[in-house]
User: What shape does this take?
Amino acid sequence: MKNLKYIFFSVILLVVQQVEAQNEKGRKGTFALINANLVTVTNGTISNGTLIVADGKLAALGKDINIPEVAEVIDCTGLSVYPGMIDGGSRLGLTEVGSDARTRDYNEIGDVIPQMRALTAVNPSSVLIPVTRISGVTTSLAVPDGSLFSGTAALVNLHGYTPDQMYAGFEAIVLNFPSTGKRNRWDSRSGEEIKKDAEKALKKLNAAWDRAVVYHEIDSAIQAKNSSEEMKYYPEMENLLPVVRGEKTLLVEVNTANDIITAIDWVSDRNIKAVFTGVSEGWRVAEELAKAKIPVIVGPVLSVPNREYDRYDRPYANPGIMLKAGVKVAIKTGDAENVRNLPYNAGFAATYGMGKEEALKAITIVPAEIFGVSDKLGSLEEGKVANIFVADGDPFETKTQVKHLFIEGWKIPLESRQTKLYDEFLERNPGLKK
Amino acid sequence: MKKYIIIVLPLLFSLIVQAQQKGSVLIKNGTVLTITKGTLETTDVLIRDGVISRIGKDLNTPKGTRIIDASGMYVMPGIIDAHSHIALDAVNEATSPVTAEVWTGDAINPLDVSIYRALAGGVTISHALHGSANAIGGQSETIKHRYGTVDPDVLRMKEAPRTIKFALGENPTRVHGGGQGIVPRTRMGVEAVFRSSFSEAKQYMQAWDKYNDGKNNKGFKGTAPQYDLRLETLADILRGEVIVHCHSYRADEIYMLMQVFKDFGIKKLVFQHANEGFKVAPELAEFGAMASVFSDWWAYKFEVYYSTAYNASILHKNGVVTSINSDSGELIRHLYHEAAKTQKYGGLSDDEALSMITINPAKQLGIEKNVGSIEVGKDGDVAIFKNHPLSIYTIPMMTIVDGIVEFDRKNDADDMRIYADPDETIDVTLYGTGHAGDRCMQDAQFLFYK
Assistant: This one.
């Protein structure tokens, strides 16, 4: 009897403990979002509409939509549904604590290392990820950095327990184009030294490229012969091969006007599927960028002008100026822990000339197009992946709150360590006295 | 000789005139966000000789007063940044854990174009803080953004009380314990530096008191103690004449400093950054310490890993006077947007959010009687916005300091440098300007980037 009592209390204790320890998990299912303002991005806005999420997809959306019996109905009166925002370039997942090298996985050693894959190093358990996604950013491009060909960037959805569960279907090789500017404010090199370094880097770049072209020719010859010959293991060249052949995107990080012009010539001479990133002085050479038909992923928008003598608002106005010149413009934060500020980078661009509608496109459908995944991401369209968020207002407005979040059809709890700390400490217990 | 006087006198005179430059403007028909006395629709604000002299409807225009039409615009007090390093030639005197004798006021750079960029974000005052390399850093200067002068004195806000920078945690322990092998290497050592410094300062004060009390007595034989500027400054802190602004992140170190200050009877205390201030909000409120925080910066180093963007709201709701600061030449340009984040993270009202960049930082700098709200008798520091300043679609249109229009979006040139370097042979183009952490470590970089 005593024993029974003991077991009984143990069980109760166990249940209580479990309840206390439980974290809300993502849920997959069929959901019907009703009475919603559906901001499709590509086909206008549907007011008082219904959107069905099923099997991870946007199963149906519109005015007169049948609600499946199994669906969990979510009333969205007064709320708007948007496609999940896409950051066109970040370090999210590749770094945890900025100052601690042991948590930095975006900068491998070597100048030409395209074989280093960001997807391998994306940490699905990064505390930074929930902090980001609950602001409506569902997808980001994890970009390796630090050398000439610094690796292979990967597009990831911000939910999943392995990199493969997060992979969103796009990888690209990263090239940091030789820069004639200063690296940062502590760069104490003289003008002469900077010039020399840039020339050296350009030489190195050309040498690597020429080698890749030779590799491509040999590889093509072997294939043409249908030979069983194999090339020596050479991962650098193997990874540059699809770029040389124009099959894989090359992300070219380039910022100052002179460098952009040099980079335009460089890629035009080589028939490369190029996308320029950073592009902080794109406004200076917008016409040339438009003529070259090179899409850009610009950002961060919230940054200071490159030059002391430039107008204070150039970085804000940059995306709009390029867009008006006819450039295809997406926006990136280049951040890690504050990728959540993507809508504000777009918001400032909107305010300083780009306009609301185009700025929203620059963080949804345009990056999806640039990454070749616009059949899956970037807008509210039937059949697309259910990456969406529901907000109580304009997502660019700072005070707007995200009310629901879905990534690949999973309903994600709006929780992060930062919200948990708020819950715990708003009214701390014990307070002053224990 | 006469010739020189003729040249020098007008020069001196022009400097004085510049230093005392005050303007008169009438800002008509704006929506006036007073911060302390509510929002006034279609209201005029008259600034005469640099001071707000009247607030009301259909005010008469005194002779010689420039009229600014603010119809459809928002008029708010000039934004105040309680943590900045712009307009400084040097930030850290990183040579000792205690450098109370130095002063950023000796390193003001009026040519820094960041001043103009801050004005273009509605910011009229910033706290030019010493860095955080030392447990007890240098004294700091509160500056008004009077841009367009080459004279550092013009920028000083003369009414502002003295302030000094302290620092806890990783920065002082990294620089001195890690970089130079001296105390402090740990948070224990940081506390020890404070306790020994203030104990020494107390003895120094007592020695001077003893000498001053006795020196006029007949037969007095003592000599004056050796004058020490470092200890003088610490003694002034003990006397309550200097506001301490302490760089801090973790809750335990914040708590530690409050205990030390209680023991030494020091009351004027503002925690800078205080990323974990929210964890000891009740203790901060009880002490009467204030907090000047980032809107959302975190994870750039380990001691800010356990942060939350709700920090400002939790502190505010627990009764701590809280401000949002920049610590950055970039963020300072959009503090109005940073303040709006307290609405996203914690749902603060418009007035509460705006107080974080106006009256609250004014309190933290001890200048709330002069600035921080639109009230008669306060300085004519005003920022005018198209659209509400907390909206993402807002645009700062005009910034006024002491009644002088310092920024006017419609009339300003692209190149606003005061000084162009004739030796510059290459375009200095920075890229990758995303923040790499707080700027408090400037001039201490040599210790880490050899």
Q: What stands out?
A: Chain B has a mean pLDDT of 92. Residues 187-214 of chain B form the longest helix (28 residues). Chain B touches chain A through 64 residues (CB under 8 Å).
